[in-house]
Amino acid sequence: MGIKAEKEGWSLDGLKLEVDKQMSKIGPRKIDTLIIHIFTPLNLTVDQLNVLNKEIKDCPVLRNIESSTNINLLWTKQ
Fold this sequence. Notes:
By secondary structure, the chain is of the alpha+beta class. It has one domain: K homology (KH) domain (GMP Synthetase, Chain A, domain 3, 2-Layer Sandwich), CATH 3.30.300. It has three helices and three strands. Strands 1-2-3 form a three-stranded mixed sheet, with no helix packed on it. A hairpin with a 7-residue loop joins strand 1 (16-23) and strand 2 (31-40). The chain starts with a helix and ends with a strand.
């Protein structure tokens, strides 16, 4: 997101992420689900948020871990 926002000249000042993890209850202990709360600044438009959401889904880190971990992205404008 940061790289795309910088290329576009968008300010992400005030962006905040909170990550909660849920551990597996069955089998070996591991992270089962990551819940990522994305609090976006009010200055971003709906179109900009859609672009950033696409950037997250195309993120190589996300692609690497999503095969073994559930990931829930929760967007909130603040």
